[in-house]
Fold:
Amino acid sequence: MADSREVMNIRQASQYLGVSTDTLYKYVYEEKIPAFKLGNRWKFKKTILDSWMERKSMGGEDKGKKRPKAARAAAGAQRQGSI
Structure:
């Protein structure tokens, strides 16, 4: 993106992230991506998106992801000291 603004609208953010605007709206409404409303428009702060992408690329914040049942069971057993 040639014009690297600090606060981006939905179109600019979708180009920056490489996803369609429809996909970005979906992520916003599912609260999967950091955004805020200014009036009735969604806005995205570039530094926050960059930090969010960095955390995601390092495997952090997997709260929304479901692990396979076997992995969840193993993690639970490990916490209880069974393994």
